[in-house]
Amino acid sequence: MDIGQLVGDIRIPRLELFLPELIVLITAFMLFTLDLVLSTRLKRVVLPSLSAIGYVLALMSVGITIQFQGNTFYGTFTNDYLGILVKVFVLIITLTVLAFSYKYYEAKNSFYGEFYYMLAFTLLGAMILASSYNLIIIYVSLELVSIGFYILTALLRGSFISKEGAFKYLILGGLSIALASYGAVFMYIYSGSIDLRGILSYSGQDYHYLILGLVLFLIGFAIKIGAVPFHFWLPDAYQGAPTPVTALMASVGKLVFFIPVVRIMPLIQDKFSVAWMLTVGVIAAATMLYGNLVALVQRDIKRLLAYSSIAHSGYILAAVAVTKEIGLKAVIYFLLVYTVMAAGSFFVVAMLERAEGWNNEIREFSGLRFSLPYLAFSFLVYMFALLGVPPTVGFVGKALVFMALSFDGLWWLAFIMILSTAISTGYYVRLIVLMYMKDREKNVTIMGKSYAELVSLVFLTLLTVALAVVPGVIWQLLSPAASMLFVR
Amino acid sequence: MEIVRTDFPFVSLSIAIPALFSLLLVFVNERFIKPLSLIGSGITFLLSLCVIYLFDYSRGAAVQFYEEYVILQELNIKLSLGLDGLSLLMYLLTTLVSLVAIVWSVRDKQINFRLREYFFAFLMTESFLIGVFASFDLIVFYVFYELTLIPMLFAIGVWGYKLRLYSAYKFFIYIFVSSLFLLLGIVSVAVVHYTDKGSFSFSYFDLLKNSYPMGFEIFLFLLFFIAFAVKTPLVPFHTWLPDAHGEAPTAGSVVLAAVLLKMGTYALLRFNIGLFPEASIKLMPLMVAIGIVTIIYASWMTIVQNNIKRFVAYSSVSHMGFVVTAMFLLNYEGLRASVIEMFAHGMTSASLFMVAGFIYGRLHTFNMENLRGSVKFMPVFALIVATTSFAAMGLPGGSSFWGKFLTMLAAREYSYSLALLVLVGGFFSAAYVLFMLKTLFLDVREESILIHFTDIRGFKLASFVMLVLPMLLVGFFPHLFFNMFEGSINFVLKNLLGLE
Hints:
GO molecular function (chain A): NADH dehydrogenase (quinone) (non-electrogenic) activity; NADH dehydrogenase (ubiquinone) activity; quinone binding
Membrane topology (chain A): Multi-pass membrane protein
Number of helices of chain A: 19
Number of helices of chain B: 19
Helix content of chain A: over 70%
EC number (chain A): 7.1.1.-
Structural class of chain A: mainly alpha
Oligomer: heterodimer
Strand order of the largest sheet of chain A: 1-2
Shape of chain B: globular
Order of helices and strands of chain A: HHHEEHHHHHHHHHHHHHHHH
Distance between the termini of chain B: 10 Å
Largest sheet of chain A: 2 strands, antiparallel
Number of domains of chain A: 1
Structural class of chain B: mainly alpha
Helix content of chain B: over 70%
Radius of gyration of chain A: 22 Å
Radius of gyration of chain B: 22 Å
Number of domains of chain B: 1
Organism (chain A): Hydrogenivirga caldilitoris
Strand order of the largest sheet of chain B: 1-2-3
Strand content of chain B: under 5%
Pfam family, one (chain A): Proton_antipo_M
């Protein structure tokens, strides 16, 4: 082969599409290097600040990439509205995780340089996962996110439950990756393509391979998002992980693990609409009911929120079952706003864990309003949001899911959603009642609040209400994102 | 439906003023809380009087003082606020009862802690309630409808009596869960509009034009009905109410009974009958039956109560039975009866709950028998109780007379037996009221502990007077009120008969 021909084939990647990822990548490597060379005292200052600067720059560069949309790296990386929207939320949440983890680790008397670069690599994986149709890229970025989570979960080396959680997560995560990649192989056999769009628009003879491939691939993702009956790792991992990491897993993790499913949702529905509606609907129903029922009997707040997270996977899956465009919009909206609610509620727990004698038990919330009025108020907002009471984002999310279900006439699923929301009222309202209507059992004081934490908490709380009161802001990006995916 | 836009935002102002005052309460010194709350709800009440004065009664069913602000262009969700005759009356009721509740709370001895939050909750409730009655966008309506739950949850849970946590829970769960059906119904109606017309709309005026296949219309009707039946409440969805009322602080019960229950009946008329006329006609026998059962069952339950709060609570359920029965007779008299009864019951139930609160303040018990013979020592109080009770019973000159009289007239249009059933209901309601009066005042005790008690006066007397006057006004000059909603009712009837 002629050299010139070979060189001619190499197209220069459009790096402007990849700018935010590039910045995070560079940040990650800088953090990694600095962690090796700096002294511990310097690290404590440099690593968090450098991460923050990197993420803010990346966030700003997302704005630039809006004008350059399209594919690059030979079609393996796609920058579109959906990707941009996801990246904005992922970056914001990661920044807040940074804000909360500093004091958290300080209170636990530990500092890990690994935390910062693993966080950066996880973020990188999440961002790439959010913008690809390519099976290989999805696989690699999925691994990157997952490995990041395994390590971050196990980071509290002295804690037994941290290690246990990470271990369970690792085993089931490994299984999920294995299943997904096995599924990918079948899809490749069917179509000869590794691009999901190519695979699903290909009309080959041997449908069995496609179905088998898709089922395995989706089971892989079902494990990741904690859909029943693949959810067993989730409560343990959430409980064991350092709480800011739990927040990351519940918000960013859930968001990006759903994105490949969202991307191929319209394409699959084109082929198997009835089977899809039924299968996903049943899984959604089981997930909602199971998550809420088990959450009802939890005594540990982190486990309660973990089960509520499972239930929310169910609500989102209910909209995934819908074959109309509104379903796609509902999924994307609910996913995005869920990151805010979930992260916020776990952050409150992260702050509370710094209080003396705090064991994460639910009854410790009694009279929290008297000890920590502002923290209790923001937790109240998150609880109402998770429950779906207006004027919070949770309400808009649920309304959109109802609307989507009504479009497809999935009444049975809507009624199950009402039933499971009814169950969830029990534990969300219980927390509110404990905080605001019971006398306090003990005085809870949090030592050493930082401004970064306060600003983040206020910001997330406001966002929980603002995105519902002024829904136009998010809708203007959401609408084209959904329409672009939903081309029929 | 005609829409008259306004130059001056009366409605949004009357939603904003209580809300702004409640936010103000967060920042002010403790001693300004009560005066500021009084001023806030006072201004809102005056504003509502202005609106009543400026309202053009000759325009029939027109929605006046209409304002519109876009919330979400893509789904066509608008903050559309306005008042027609029906909502005007409810709006007046809200501002009046909220003011009364706040005037009462100023001197309520039970309310001696967390004052800031207490008055915050009540002002917020007022603002949300006005929002409920003035919204002509179904999503906005739903949002306000749900929002009223939150301050009430706190009012019951924080300042309530012994079983307050249980009752607060029960109240919230019942109403929140039932209203999820409403949410599903609302989005489904909008989806039907979308599939027919190709664009989203949650506007009441647009959705009025929808038409549905019969079976589906009944399904939608029931989705709406579940929510409103729980809110109203109708037997067998009523079990949250005696608990919530029994445990709520006095002002909480007042607002709950006088206004919050009206949200259910108002919405039944506005949405169920308005949006699904054919299903309403089809389901009429069922609805009337539920209404009659509610009247009779709740009256029986009332008679056996010793606790005066639960007594008034059950009697409220029974009155709501009258409202729903009258409403679903679907004729002119029936609709008139239901609306005037809503207003009348607002006055009487509020007043009776304050009676309960007054008794508790003196005796620290809700047991009626403990007050025996008090007429001797508290004549003014006894007079107020008697007036209120007679008005509630349906004696001519009292507010409930017109409701009950017209209900019977409306029932007579269908059959004598139906009218007879309503009559029996009326008989029961007279029975329990007389029973209460006898227990409270006429059974004379030998050595009364009441001898040292002073009669009612000051703020508490004022709050009673503010309710008794309109009660008599409705009784003696009903046309003033009938004129308000005449046009709206004609519109509903035309819609039902398919004339439009």
